[in-house]
Amino acid sequence: MLMVETRIVAELSGRIISLSVGVGDKVGEGQEVAVVEAMKMEIPLASPVSGVVVGVFCQPDEMVSEGAPILSIKFASEEGSHDA
Questions:
Q1: Which residue ranges form the domains of the chain, and what is each CATH number?
Q2: Tell me, what's the pLDDT at 80?
Q3: Concatenated DSSP letters for 15-77?
Q4: Lowest mean pLDDT across 11-20, 59-68, 75-84
Q5: Could you read off the pLDDT of 22-60 as tens digits, one per residue?
Q6: Which residue from 6, 38, 55, 81 could staple onto 72, CB 3.0 to 4.6 Å apart?
């Protein structure tokens, strides 16, 4: 099994309202991990995978630009782990 890292990024420029996880926390696929306020809307960000948070790149009340990394999650992947 191969360990892979993925990043969750801000979909729009805005302000981080909340982070519900920290480094070392386990997350499930679809779990809300942060909320960004953009254009007077609250946009929840969910984990695309089940894994462990290995990096947090912002703090609540911080302004972020579109595409800015919010956090990083390491997860196990079957892809690429077999002999070719």
A1: 2-77 (2.40.50.100)
A2: 55
A3: EEEEE---TT-EE-TT-EEEEEEETTEEEEEE-SS-EEEEEE---TT-EE-TT-EEEEEEEEE
A4: 75-84
A5: 999 999 999 999 999 999 999 999 999 999 999 999 999
A6: 55
Q: What is the pTM of this model?
A: 0.85
33-68 core/surface letters (b: 16 or more CB in 10 A; e: else) = bbbbbbeeeeeebebebebbbbebebeeeeebeeeb
The 3-state DSSP class for residue 5 equals: strand
- Reading the block at residue 35, the tokens are 């909320």
Structure tokens at 23: 């480094």
Q: d(Cα 40, Cα 42) in Å, to the nearest integer? A: 7
Query: 22 and 47 in contact (C-beta within 8 Å)?
Result: no
